[in-house]
Specification:
Shape: globular
Distance between the termini: 37 Å
Structural class: alpha/beta
Strand content: 5-15%
Largest sheet: 4 strands, mixed
Oligomer: single chain
Helix content: 40-55%
Length: about 450
Amino acid sequence: MATCHSLNLDGLVIIGGVTSNSDAAQLAETLIQNNCKTKVVGVPVSLNGDLKNQFVETTVGFDTVCKVNSQLVSNVCLDAISAGKYYYFVRLMGRKASHVAFECALQSHPNMLILGEEVALSKLTLMEIINKICDGVQARAELGKYHGVLVIPEGLIESIPEMYALIQEINILHNNNVPVAEMSSQLSPWAAALFQFLPPFIRRELLLHQESDNSAQLSQIDTEQLLAHLVETEMIKRTKEGRYKGRKFSSVCHFFGYQARGSIPSNFDCDYAYALGRISLHMIAAGLTGYMATVANLKDPVDKWRCAAAPLTAMMSLKRHLRGPGAIPIGKPSIHPSPIDLKGKAYELLREKASSFLLDDFYRTPGGIQFEGPGSDAKPITLTIENQDYVGDIEILKECLSKVRTMVKPGCSREILKAAISSMLSVTDVLTVMSHPLNAELPLYHFK
């Protein structure tokens, strides 16, 4: 605030994801309370793609990162089918949500994809995941195929119930300043047993100091190597028991991390960022503060985009926080990461193609980012399938209400009036139930 005063700033544009825009809302409120003239507006920019809601269809950077990683995954797919003897375990960035892995799978068609949201919803244990992968390997072996590509998200390990509980125990020990060398001896009996079961390299990575938000350093945990190690162990076991009679299982692991954000941006991200920048200018000029620049109808050409300003508070909900041992939980308004919609059209499409992806080597090669020619203006597949146009839907509702006003007015028949009243009462009842606040403080992949 002192800096805003000293620079005599009219506006401050905060660019980022869920955390940055939550901070923007807090900062906007603080500046107003202290009579600071600086207006604060947010812009949705995040490679993770987890800032999604009725106002934000996607974030700047997501398309570019997915295009770069999809090319890398497709290269691995071609290498796999060429060598014919390795299973590639590929971990993609995205932190807790699986949006990047999901989009890249739709673009490159790897044989298997494990989403953190699926694991969290089904409460799959680590060994249940391993058995599912092994079943896929065995099904391919029966077709004479001893290669394949498995894609997982960065945050998968936190979606596994027992691993999440272990990580939480380790975080508590970190918060209590327990030395790393002594942590394993202070775990609960079941957590200690799980910890000892894990390979040494995973143990070391789990003990790393947590991020600023008290979460594990997901980018530093080699989940893909853990899965490859356990799958190999299980396949050896199945071979000894006579349940698997194919070739020896061999794996190669990759982590495609934050290198992708250094890429030249795609056409879509260039257009999107330019539009958001211009909206931000108009918002500040109009005196708005605590708002986010948004663009709707992104699936269509640029001239059909709908520009708007949405209040940051409309995207926020309460999340419980503790400020020390034994403290009473307090509510802190925040914008929470949005998980993949497991009831959405994009996920339904993936489920329909899952069997073909697993067995048919239906690999797709999107190629590198192009600025001209075929494919240069392609948009994220999830964005085009979801067909989310919140502002457009509001316009449709307004048109319907306008037609009702026209048809139901003094002079209309009693039958029309009764039908209108009955319909409106029914709609009101349904909307009342749907708008009742639900207990959704924690994201889908948390267990408490």
